[in-house]
Design brief:
Helices cover 47% and strands 15% of the residues. By secondary structure, the protein is α/β, with parallel strands linked by helices. It folds into 2 domains: 195 residues, Rossmann fold, CATH 3.40.50.300; 114 residues, Helicase, Ruva Protein, domain 3, CATH 1.10.8.80. It has a 5-stranded parallel β-sheet with strand order 2-5-8-1-9. It has a two-stranded antiparallel sheet with strand order 3-4. Strands 6-7 form a two-stranded antiparallel sheet.
Length: 341
Amino acid sequence: MQTIDPASEERAQRFRETFGAIRDEIGRVIVGQGETVGQMLTCVMAGGHALLEGVPGLGKTLAVNALSRALGLKFARIQFTPDLMPADITGTNVVTEDDEGRRRFQFQHGPLFAHVILADEINRATPKTQSALLEAMQERSVTVAGEIRRLEEPFFVLATQNPIEMEGTYPLPEAQLDRFMFKIRVEFPTLEELSAIVDRTTGRQAGEVRVVAAGETVRAMQQTAREVAVASHVKEFAARLTLATHPDHPLASPGVRRFVRYGSSPRGLQAMVLAAKVTALLDGRFNVSMDDLRRVAPPALRHRMLLNFEGEAEGVRTETLIADALDALDAVAAQSPALEV
């Protein structure tokens, strides 16, 4: 039985309270979308980035804006278009003149030098501009004219894309998708939620978001999440699930073997473990369970499993294949108690 010192228990309690306060504050302007907001906050507290996919008008931009206001962080929105250039987001050196008429180069910061970056319709920019985000997302830095400039922490990229209108878009390459901890599907509101949206947005006064946490608080919460324990058998389960997404591995299910071309990278394993640590804290535990991993597996793996031609043609959903992989692992455990996961 794991023993938790009082200081850790206190930090865990503060984590849950602050997480709930941020979620409730976002709920002042966002109707429904509880799962979307929860997964987005999980990425933030795990130190990752998120890709939000949904049709226009579902509140993706509003949710990201509300998150930045609730955290009191600097927010920057970048509208990705085909004519957007890398220097438009990273910044560039410009020629300036001092009082004595001497000219020199001065770096002009781009919108990437913020805490919360909304990359709106990211798949509408060219690959050259999309790739400008790679260094920022992975290294938390920007290189311009051979000089590396660090980005201020915390730093999150929350990107959106429309799954319907693909005309004139540039699908994100696998290396770019892999940088996102979660791919979050934003679902259409229910009848009750649509009614609430009308009441909230067409009345006299719209909801206002208050600051409930600062950047220092976010960094402290990220550190608390990383201190959550993961037992060896739970880590093995996460590793087995990652391997089960590869069609050529013995653990792969029949569906994965038939429809998947490539499985998840090790980043998928890292994303699952970090997100599961946040999930465990929210459930009042300081150790990760296999149920935590099962809950975070779909958003962490759905964009890291590449379908083959047959899978694309038949419209197979990667969520279904992830569920198949979990069932296959359970079947293996049932047949071989020594490999129980």
